[in-house]
Amino acid sequence: METEKLDEYHGEKTENYDVDGLLEKKKHIEELLKQKFTKQITVMFTDLKGSTSITEAEGDLALRVLIKDQSDIIMPAIKECNGKFVKSIGDGTLSYFESPQEALRAAIGIQRKIKEFNASGKPKIPIQLRIGLHTGECIVEKDDIFGDVVNVACRFESQAEAGEVCISEETFKNLGDKDEFCCRYFKTRQLKGKKEAFKIYKVTEVPILYKLVYLRDDGELVEYPITRHGLTIGRGPKCDLRMAEEFVSITHFQIWQENTNLYVKDPGSTNGTFLEGTKLKPDKPAKVSAGQTITINSVRFAIISAEQAANIKCFGENKPGIFKKLGNLWK
Predict the structure, then answer these.
(1) How far apart are CA 237 and CA 250, in angstroms?
(2) Which domain holds residue 223?
(3) Helix, strand, or coil (residue 74)
(4) Per-residue pLDDT tens for 146-198?
(5) Of 139, 188, 207, 284, which one has the greatest count of Cβ atoms within 10 A?
C-alpha cells in the first residue's frame, strides 16, 4: 500500500528503477537543489551586549526601547548595502549579503552610526553592539538561510567586544578591496562546536585624516570627510556635495586621499577650480594639504585636518565666529 501511494505521488512506477537508478535520480535532485538554493554569501550577526543586566537594572521597557534604537540604525544600513535582513533573534539580528565587501561596509557603517548616536546624548543607555561576519556556501530560501556558515558567523560575533566587528579569514580573503578597511589579524581560536581553529580578524574604519569644509550662506559650516573614495562637488545628482549655483558645473571638482596624501582634480569645469588662487589644469591632479583653500567663483572651501575639525565648535554661529575659529583660512 505504501509503495502504491509513493508511485501515485510521483506519477511513475518505482519498479521502473533499480537501486542505481534511484541513486542517480537522488543525485540529480540534489544537484538541482544545490543549483537553485545554494549560494556563497556573507552572513552578518549582530548582538546587543549586556541585555540581561539592562533588563535587571532598568526593566523590560528600557531594553525594548534600546532594541528599537539599534534597529533604526541596523535596518537602513543593511538595505543601503544591498543586504537582506532575515530575522531578529532576541536582541540580535541575522542578515546576509552576496558581496562580502558590502557586508563589511554595512557592519562598519552600523558601528559608526551607533557611536555617533551614543555620543549625541539622546539614549539614556548607550547601545553596545557586537558584529560578526563569515563567508561560505549556504542554503538560501525566500525568508531564511541555513547552513554551517550561519553557525560560524554567530561564533565570530561572540568573539567581538562592544563596538567591534570580527570577520573570518574566508570573509577577509574574499574582499575585493581590502584597503577600504583597516583589517588586522587578531588571533586563532577554537570556536564552540567546531573541530578546526579559525583565524579571527578585527576590522575598523580607515582613519579620516582630512575634511573639506564649506561655509554656507546662512553661516553654517558643513564638514565632509575625505576618504580614499573621495568627494565629488558639483550640480549633478550623483555629487557628494550638490550645489545650486549656476556657475558650478555638473561635476566641478573631485578631491580624494591616497595613503596620507591628498589630491584635487578639475575634470574640465566651465568656470574652473582654483587652488590657493591658481587655476587647476583640466584633468590634472594637484597635491593639496591642510590649511589650503579651493574656490569656485565666489564659493570657498577649506581643507582641514581631522584634529582641526575636532577643535571647531562653532556650528550654527555667525560668520565672524566661524572665521575666527578657522584662523586665516578665509582671510
Answers:
(1) 8
(2) 210-330
(3) helix
(4) 999 999 999 999 999 999 999 999 999 999 988 888 899 999 988 988 888 99
(5) 139
Q: Is residue 308 part of a domain?
A: yes
Pairwise CA distance, residues 211 & 222, whole Å: 10
b/e code 293-311 from CB counts within 10 Å (16+ = b): bbebeebebbbbebebbee
Alpha-carbon distance of 61 to 310, in angstroms, equals: 36
Cβ(314)–Cβ(327) below 8 Å: no
How deeply is 105 buried, as exposed, middle or buried, from its count of CB atoms within 10 A (0-12, 13-18, 19+)?
A: buried
Q: Which residues contact 252 (CB under 8 A, 6 or more apart)?
A: 233, 234, 235, 243, 266, 269, 273, 296
Domain end call among 186, 205, 224 = 205
User: Would the pTM count as exceeding 0.85?
Assistant: no
Q: Kindly report the CA angle at 123 between 119 and 126, in degrees rounded to 5? A: 70
Which stretch of DSSP H or E encloses residue 50? none
Beta-sheet pairing, 129-140 with 165-168: parallel
